User: Fold these one by one.
Assistant:
Number 1:
Amino acid sequence: VPYYVVVWAALAAAAVGCEVAGWLAHAGRIKSRLAPLEHVLTAVRSKGPGRAVLVVSWAWLGWHLFAR
Amino acid sequence: VASKPEGPTAGRRRCTAPFSWWLAAALALAAGDSIAQASARPFSWRADLATAGAIAAIIGGGAVSLWKEKSARATAPLRRGPPATAYACWALVITAAAAFELTELFGAPRRDHPTMSSLLTSLSGHEVSRATLFALWVVAGYWIWRR
C-alpha cells in the first residue's frame, strides 16, 4: 500500500473520530470536550479575523484543487 | 379592536419568505460555473477563469453582505463557543492535512507524490463528480458569509 494512502486514511480516520466524538458529546452521550467541525467553524467565523482566515483558506483550497 | 381579515386569502397562512431573484440568479450562476469548471481541461485558462470567478463572486457578495450587516447594526448575540480542546483537536487534524499536502506538493515526481489536486485531476473524466465537488466548494464559501 503506498504511504500516501496510509497517511490520507489516517487523517480521514482522525477527522471522522473527532466529528463522531464531537456529536456524541454534543448529544450528551459521552463526556468529552470535543465538538463537531461545524460548531468550531461557526464560532471561528463569528469573529472578523477568524472569518478572514476561513475565506483565505477556502480561496486557496479551491484554487489549489480546481485551478492550479 | 382588530378586525378579522376578509377576502379570498382570509384564514390562509401567508408565505413570509418571498422568492428572491438574487438567490435564484446566484444559484443559476453557481450551477453554470460548476458545469463550466468541470468541462474545462485541468490547468487551462478556462479552469482558472471559472475558479477565479467563483472566488471573486463569493468574496464580493460576502463583502456586500458584511457592509449591509454593519450598516443595519444587526449583531447577533454571542453564544458560548466550543471548548478549547475542540479547537485544538480540529486545528491539529487540519494542520496535519495541510502540512502533508504541502510536503507532497513540493515532492517530485508527481506520480510518487500525489497531491489532493492531482488525485482530483484523475477524476477529470467524470465531469459530474468534478461539477459536484466544485459546487460543494462554492456552497462552503457561501456558508462562511452566511449570517
Number 2:
Amino acid sequence: MRLTFGPDVETFRQEFLAWLAENRPSEEEMAAEPAVSSAHVPEWARRWTRRMFDAGWLVPGWPPERGGRDAGPVETLVYLDELTKAGIPRTTNPQGLGIIAPSILDYGNEAQIRDYAMPVLRGERAACLGMSEPGAGSDLASLSTRAVLDGDSFVISGQKVWTSGANYADFCFLFCRTDPQAPKHKGISVVLVDMATPGITVRPIAQIARPEYPDLNEVFFSDVAVPRENLVGKLNDGWAMANGSLAHERGMVWLSGVLGLERSMAAVLPEAPAALARLAPAERAVVADGLVQSAIDAVAARCLGYRGFAKLVRGGSAPEQALMKVFTSEANRRLALRAAELGGHRAVEVGAGPDSDETWMERYFITFGGTISAGSSEIQRNIIAEKVLGLPR
Amino acid sequence: MDLEFSEDEAALRDNVRAVLAGICPPAAVRAVFEGKGDPASVWSRMVELDWPGLGIPEEAGGLGMGYVAVALVAEELGRAVAPGAFLATVTQFAPAVRELAGPADLLARVAAGEVTGTVALAEEGGWEPAAVAATARETAEGWLLAGAKRAVLDGAQAGEVLVVARAEGTAGLEGLGAFLVEGSRLDATPRPVIDPTLPLADLALDGVVVPPDRVLAPPGAPGVAEALERAGQEATVALAASTVGACRVVFERTVDYAKVREQYGRPIGSFQALKHRMADMFLAVERATALCYFAALTIAEEDPRRAQAASMAKAAAGECQDLVARDGLQLHGGIGVTWENDLHFPVKRAITGDTLYGNAVHHRARLAQMLGLVA
C-alpha cells in the first residue's frame, strides 16, 4: 500500500495536464451552451471531442489504431481524475462514448465501425441506448420490441422507455427480440437504428426536477424498416452484448460515482459554514454531523474504489467493485438531502440553490437517477448478496 | 494511491493470521471470557515472534516495518479476539514515548518484549488531551501527581504507565506534561467490562511522586500536545482496525449461518430482506476497512491528512460496529444471544473498540471542527 503512484504515472499526468492547459474548452463557451441531455452535443463539445480524439486523449486506454495511446489502467484513472478536477466533461454523450462505440468496435463490422462508432468518437454523431421497456426494466431479458427479418430489412415494432438522450441522438443501439420462440435470453439481437427513420416517435418524459430539460424518453417503433446490415454481431446473440455493454459501463461507473460524490461535497462544504450560521444553535451540530458523515462517505468511496481497482490491476478479483454503485449513488442522495437541510425553508425555493438556478431539493431529486438507473439499488443488493456473498437465490 | 496489500504486506497478514489461529484459537478466547484464560502466554508468543518491535524503528531496536504493519496486526488481533499487551504497548505506549522523544533504550526494551506499557490519558472529561484535569506539581522529591484516570487499557497489567497531567492553573493544550510511572506504584481498579480481551482500569494518581529521571516532558514543555495528538492517532487507527477485524468475523459468520439455517424449507439467506441487510453489512465492513488502510498509510507516510483520516477511520469503524453487531446478532436469532455460541466474543470486542479513544460520535464531532463546520 502507498499513497502515491510511481514517477512514470506522474510523468503521464504532467503530459496530460500540459495538453489540457493548451486545448481545453473555455469556461465561457461551456457556460454559453450547456449540454441539456445525455446525447446533446453542443458545438463546443463537438470541437472538444474531436480535439481530444485526434490527440489520442479521448480514449487513452485504447490502442493507437483505435485512437488511443495504450495507457494503462492507472494512467487512465489519473486522466479521468484530472479531467474532473478541471471541471471539464470528457463527453456530453456518455453512453455513446462509454458503451455504444466500444460495443460496436468489439462486435460490429467494418462499415458499422466506420459509419457509427468512429463518428461518435469524433463528436460527429450522438447515440442512445435502447434497452428498458415498460415490461423490461431490471429484467431486461424480458424485452418484447420485435425485429422481424423481411428480405433485406428488419421491421421493428414496439416501445422503449427511459431512453436517455433519444430526443437528441442520431442513432440508437437497439436491443430487440428476433426469436420469440427461443428462451428469453437467447432470442435477442442488437440493431443500429437511425433516429430519422420513418415510424419512430420520441416522446420526452418531463421529470420532477428541471422538467424543461427532459433527458429520458419514450421511443415508439411502428413498422420501422432498418437495413439488414445494421445487425450488430450475430443474430440472436445480443444478450452477450447486454452483458458486455454493462461491463464497459461498470468499468467506469465506480470512478464517475466517486468523482460525482466528491464534486457534490466540494460544492457543499464552502457553502456550509455560512448556512450553518443561519441555523438555530441547537440545529447546527445536528446538521453539521450529517455533513460530516457525507464527508466520510466521500473519502471512503475513493478509498474503497481505489482498493478494488488496485486488486483488478494486479489481476485479482475485487468484490469491492460490486459495492461501488449502490454506495456512491446512495451517498450522493444522502448528501443532497443533508445539503438541503442547510437551506432550511429555502431548500424548496427555486433559484436559491448552491449554484445558481438549481434548488437544493431539485439536486436531491436528480440524485435518484443514480439509485434507480442502470440497476436499481435493490437489484444491486441482490447481486451483491448472490454473486459476491454466495447467498442462495 | 494504492490501497491493496503489497506481497510483503499480504505475507505478513497471512502469517499473523496463521500464528493467531495457533496461539489464540476459539477455545482460548472462550477461556479468557470465562476467567480461565492465559493472556500472558499469548503475549509471550507474540514477543518470541518480534511483534512488539514491528513498528519501532530499526535504530531504536525494532524491525522498522512501519505503521501499516502495525495496523494489519491490530486488524488480525480484532479478528481473532486476541488478548495480550499488543494494542496498549505497541499502538499506545510506544508511539507516545517516541513522539515525546523518550529514552531510546525504553523503546528498545519494548521491542525486545522486556516491558509492557500503556497510556493514561482519558478522564471523566473524555479522550482529548485538552480535557486532562490531572495535575503535576514540582516538589523537592519530584513531581507530585493528583487526579484520576479512566478506562486505561491494560491499566492494571502494564509494566509502565505513561501518565498525562498538567501544571496547576493551566487549561486546554497548554501546560501538559507526561510522566513514566511503574504500574505497580499506581492504585488500579480493574473495571468489570464486557470484553476481558481489552481489560480496562481506573487509576488513582493522588500521592504518586515521579522522580525527575522519569519525567518524559515537564508540564508546559513545548510540543507535548502535538506529540500526544500524533501518538493518539496511531492508537485510534489501531483500535479502528481491531474493531473492523472483529466486525468482519461477525459478518462472515452471519453469512455462513444464513446459508445453512433453514426455515420454511429454505435457507434463511435466500430471503431478500436478509440478503439486503447482509449486503449493507458487507458495505459497512469494506467502507471502514478502506478508511483504516488509508489512515494507516497517512500515518506511515507522514501525510498532512492523518488527523482527519484517523478520525474518519475510527468513526467508520464505530458505525460499522453499530450495524454489524446489531444485524449479526439479529440474523443469528436465538442462538446468537446465547453464551454457548462464540458470536458474542467478536461482537463485544467490536463494541469495546468503538468506545476506546473516542467512539464514532466523538470522532464525527472532531471532524465537524476540523472541516470548519462548527467552532
